[in-house]
Specification:
The complex is a heterodimer. Chain A has five helices and 16 strands. Chain A is α/β, with parallel strands linked by helices. In chain A, strands 4-3-7-1-2-6-5 form a seven-stranded antiparallel β-sheet. Chain A has a seven-stranded mixed β-sheet with strand order 11-10-9-8-12-13-14, with helices on both faces. Chain A has a two-stranded antiparallel ribbon with strand order 15-16. Chain A is globular and about 50 Å long. Chain A starts with 17 loop residues before the first strand and ends with a strand. Chain B has one domain: TIM Barrel. Classes of the chains: A alpha/beta, B alpha/beta. At the A-B interface, strand 4 and strand 7 of A face helix 1, strand 5, helix 2 and helix 8 of B.
């Protein structure tokens, strides 16, 4: 499997805002939409892009699709920036920087992809890329209930077996994605690589399940990202200072286990630590 | 064999590159990260009395072959920073603290309640930020009299050696540097970012930065910084950290020829990666070796010797 390449340094010209227009808007779940944008980012699964809106500023978003003509981001309405974005219509123009970040390193022959919430977006991107390279995958997507579940009516992807999970059993498997992953690894010894993205405590549990079965994996570790290209330090993790916008967000399980704050705390815009709270 | 080590305010730096304040340097981990990549010393991002979220993103964008930034002193405030910067010995290189305040009294407060309780090898204060209301240039802190007042107040309370970071916008930096020296400053950092400037998104004509305008850094700042270091060297006898647009070993050598003891590196992390510290050092070694020099002392202030000869003609 070829290893992914990505930028760890940038020409100044790479950091100018580029202009694009909205090509389509799809309602994915309650308060969650996928926005299509004209053009390609030449992005890889696990990378992110900074969207820019006049007055509202810029925010980073994980990439769901990038087919060479259009890129798609799945976005939840959670604050002033996304509220302004949700007011936009097809044809409206906005800016972007990127793509940024270390993508998933596609290795393995039969994959388990475990996503919760918006973490499903980069994993769905990864699943399509894996298929294109002849690699099959088990895509495990979870949400609290059916109304929050992403991509449940997305057409089937060749080579990808989908496993939808809801906490309340309102759709698919009743239970946590990590419970479903445990079953898959127990029943299918051909799975040789596990990728995960989503809530941090879920990812921490995914890493623990991988360890139980002695399987390699990668996690997408998200931190507060201001600049996106490794200069401001807001996404540096303890204790080694790795920048999750350059040395991450996609890191090997072994690297994640060396990050003392993984699953423990994160920092806000001011750099103040906040613990992750167990549900 | 070329020896790049320098002595600065009692600190022994393996090489003259210093992580400039405001670039990474927001946690002890990020200081260690830069030290691992070859920085000779590191400066923390400036701390204020209260926590600050900083300006809204985007906080940085590219323009004119360099960067514009308006970070706006995002920091956790001195109480949280006390815990963040405990046990600095494991950073592995000298650590320079930094804090910024709105008044001379507040500067003294942060010396007593923050910096004096930590193991900083020196402390740098920026009297020169061009884009944050209440601080630096926007508070009128870059002039001669106020520099003397703030430095005097700090020297009465601060334990560590004091470095004063001056503005890139001064038409005549010499008198301000001299005022800092007269008030007891131990070193000068020349310079902060230039401007401010702005840039617009092409399709909408709207300003890109969240704050609207920001300080200019990178290659466009280099000639301004070089002249500031040159002029500062003429005005004072205390050491200078030459900062502004240093991206290559050649840039660093020019700074030292202009009179700098050490060189700040920040924006160059973008085009050359965090490995830039090590790259600059390798390039400096090659340049010095080609000149038959074995240490930085042999080239320091060289630009001024030439000038003297020309003045005589």
């Amino acid at each position: 499997m070829k290893s992914s390449s990505y930028k760890t340094s940038f020409d100044y010209e790479d950091l100018t805002v580029r202009s694009t227009a909205i090509t389509r808007i799809v309602e994915e779940a309650r308060g969650i939409r996928s926005f299509g944008f004209r053009g390609s980012l030449d992005a890889q699964p696990g990378q992110f892009v900074m969207l820019w809106l006049p007055e509202a500023g810029a925010r980073p978003f994980s990439i769901y699709k990038d087919d060479g003509e259009e890129f798609v981001l799945t976005i939840a309405r959670v604050g002033p920036f996304t509220e302004q974005l949700f007011d936009c219509r097809v044809g409206d123009r906005l800016g972007y920087f990127g793509p940024f970040g270390k993508p998933f390193d596609l290795r393995g022959t039969h994959l388990a992809l475990v996503g919760g919430g918006y973490g499903s977006a980069p994993l769905s991107f990864l699943a399509r890329n894996a298929t294109a390279q002849g690699v099959t995958s088990e895509l495990v997507i979870g949400a609290r209930n059916k109304s929050l579940l992403l991509y449940s009516d997305e057409p089937a992807i060749a080579g990808v077996m989908k496993h939808y999970c809801t906490d309340d059993g309102s759709y698919g498997y009743r239970g946590l994605v990590t419970e479903r992953l445990h079953e898959l690894l127990r029943d299918d010894p051909s799975i040789d690589m596990v990728y995960t993205a989503g809530p941090e405590l879920m990812m921490k549990e995914v890493v623990a399940v991988c360890d139980e079965f002695g399987i390699d994996g990668q996690v997408s570790l998200e931190r507060y990202m201001k600049c996106g290209f490794g200069i401001c330090g807001s996404c540096c993790v303890d204790p080694n200072g790795l920048r999750m916008c350059v040395e991450g967000p996609c890191i090997d399980n072994e690297v994640a286990k060396g990050i003392s704050e993984f699953g423990v705390y994160h920092r806000d815009a001011a750099g103040i630590r906040h613990p992750f709270v167990t549900a | 064999m070329v020896d790049l080590s320098v002595d600065l305010l009692g600190m022994r730096l393996e090489n003259p590159t210093v992580l400039a304040s405001g670039i990474l340097g927001v946690t002890k981990g990020s200081l260690k990260f830069c030290a691992r990549h070859g920085a000779g010393a590191v400066v923390i991002k400036s701390i204020t009395r209260e926590p600050r979220k900083g300006h809204p993103p985007p906080i940085v964008c590219a323009s004119g072959g360099g960067l514009l930034n308006a970070v706006g002193y995002s920091n956790p405030g001195y109480r949280h920073a006390m815990a963040e910067y405990e046990d600095l010995a494991d950073v592995g290189v000298p650590v320079i603290g930094s804090f910024v305040a709105e008044t001379a009294e507040e500067y003294a407060f942060l010396a007593e309640h923050f910096a004096n309780h930590l193991e900083f090898d020196a402390v740098e204060i920026p009297l020169s930020c061009p884009h944050t209301p209440g601080y630096g240039e926007l508070a009128g802190h870059s002039g001669t009299d106020i520099t003397y007042e703030i430095v005097s107040a700090l020297k009465a309370s601060l334990r560590a050696p004091l470095i004063v970071k001056l503005s890139a916008n001064l038409q005549d930096i010499g008198p301000v540097a001299k005022a800092a020296e007269d008030a007891g400053a131990d070193a000068i950092t020349a310079v902060n970012t230039l401007g401010p400037g702005t840039c617009f998104e092409a399709a909408t004509g709207r300003r890109v930065l969240g704050f609207g305008f920001g300080g200019i850094s990178g290659p466009p700042l280099k000639p301004v910084a070089l002249k500031a270091v040159y002029d500062t060297f003429q005005a004072v006898t205390i050491p200078i950290i030459g900062t502004g647009g240093v991206s290559t070993g050649q840039d660093a050598v020019e700074m030292i020829m202009a009179g700098a003891t050490a060189v700040g590196v920040g924006t160059a992390v973008v085009p050359r990666g965090v490995e830039v510290f090590r790259k600059i050092c390798e390039e400096m070694k090659d340049l010095l070796a080609a000149r038959g020099c074995s240490s930085l002392a042999e080239i320091r202030g060289k630009a001024h010797e030439k000038q003297l000869v020309q003045d005589l003609v």
